[in-house]
Q: What sequence folds into this?
């Protein structure tokens, strides 16, 4: 389910859809249905699985570490870290980029450690 997830700029909607699918699979794995009214936390504790949002963050930050280790002239690094400055953008909210989602993950990781 998370193949290539380190390259996605995930929105809240994507995380919600992935968590719904994950819980559906975990319930099926445990033999429970929604009618059994077993809490998600109980199922996660029983199976021993971390929430999918944490796994997404770990994958993205691990990939970011690999990108940072590459030399500056590497295509993956120059494509990720360079920013076009003189471009006319459209109206509305700008699209979420991968590096913005990494910055968000780093902020969340720092605040969780405190």
A:
């Amino acid at each position: 389910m998370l193949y290539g997830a380190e390259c996605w700029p995930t929105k809240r909607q994507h995380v919600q859809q992935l968590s719904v699918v994950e819980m559906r699979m975990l319930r099926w794995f445990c033999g429970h249905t929604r009618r059994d009214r077993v809490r998600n936390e109980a199922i996660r504790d029983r199976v021993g699985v971390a929430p999918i949002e944490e796994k997404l963050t770990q994958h993205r930050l691990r990939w970011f570490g690999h990108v940072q280790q590459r030399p500056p002239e590497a295509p993956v690094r120059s494509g990720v870290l360079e920013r076009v400055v003189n471009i006319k953008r459209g109206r509305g909210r700008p699209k979420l980029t991968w590096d913005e989602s990494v910055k968000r993950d780093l902020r969340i990781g720092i605040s969780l450690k405190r």
